[in-house]
UniProtKB/TrEMBL annotation:
The lineage of its organism: Eukaryota, Fungi, Dikarya, Ascomycota, Pezizomycotina. It holds the Pfam family BSP. This is Plant basic secretory protein. Signal peptide: none annotated. Residues 235-256 have a biased composition (Basic and acidic residues). Residues 231-256 are annotated as: Disordered.
Amino acid sequence: MPAIPRPEHETSPATLPIRKHRFETPKLRVHLEDISHEGTSNFLSNIKGNEDLDTQVQNVLNLLYTPDSHRPGTRSVTFILRDMGGVAYTTGMYLDDDHKEIHISLAYFKNKPRDEMLGVICHELVHCFQWNAEGTCNGGLIEGIADWVRLRAGLAAKHWKQEADGDWDGGYQHTGFFLEYLENRFGPGTVRKINICLRKGKYDEKDVFGSCCEGHKVDELWEDYREHLKKKKKHEDDEKAASEAKAAQDEDEHER
Ligand SMILES: [Zn+2]
């Protein structure tokens, strides 16, 4: 019997250049609760188990650690694809927190493109390996770091928008883009330092941002970021207006 044709395996080049060091990959396992679900088929047809999952683990570890940093002792990650609400979440196993489970909604994966599935996997893998100030870290920062890694891995979701409404710790891409601003302003490795600052002791915002961002307070940095976005937007609007004016002028000349 001929093999069932599979969709062309597209690679996402943006996810590759981050890899510098080869970290030891924990055992990666998968549990498919419903093999006849379209979400299962979509996952199996588009995600290459022997490459993609390891690539994302390496991306996460390279962005959050250097080869000699202390890392959590995660020994295995089990992907559980099942019928559930929402998108995905990560949890430690009941008896041993070094064994993680990533639960993924089959309904969500049913008709998502490859990059969105990889993006969700990348985000959840961050939760398997990031520090969290012994469980006391601000949830917005935890989720922000996860989406920052996803952004840096070249897997930002299509609907993501950079904005500075509300507080810095709104979480997800809202905080992820802010962390990207800090990474650019204070230099490569800034977010890695923030993660490493969350290794021991209770979460102390002043200490974390002070030691990773040249003594600044996070609220001041957020204000700076807001100004930065305003300027960036004005610059883009000016450029757009100038190019429209130029196009109109060219058309005028053409008509004459
Ligand atoms: Zn998350």
